[in-house]
Amino acid sequence: MSDVVPELLSTLTCPQCGHEATETMPTDSCQFFYDCLGCGVLLRPLPGHCCVYCSYGTVPCPPIQIDGKDGGCCG
Questions:
Q1: What is the dihedral of CA 3, 73, 7, 33, to 10 degrees?
Q2: Closest by alpha carbon to 31, among 6, 16, 14, 12?
């Protein structure tokens, strides 16, 4: 187990409308979907990413912060 304390806030930027929203990430799972608060589009992870935070956020999800891409949920 790693001693890394993950950052839990990430700002998601919608690729459709550019709306930004700062959200608290779950620590025990990846978030696969997110409804943009600006235009309502349903965001999904990009190919090779485990969650919307790894695709559109300013901070990757906690499992990636702790274990890295190879050991985290994106592996």
A1: -160
A2: 12
| Cα gap 3→57, rounded to integer Å | 23
Whether 8 and 63 have beta carbons less than 8 Å apart is answered as no
Q: What is the pLDDT of residues 6-20, one digit of tens each?
A: 999 999 999 999 999
Taking the C-alpha atoms of residue 21 and residue 71, their distance in angstroms, rounded to an integer, is 28
pLDDT at 2 over 90: no
Please write the tens of the pLDDT for every residue from 21-32.
Answer: 999 999 888 899
**Eight-class DSSP state of 55:** H
Are the beta carbons of 38 and 71 closer than 8 angstroms?
no
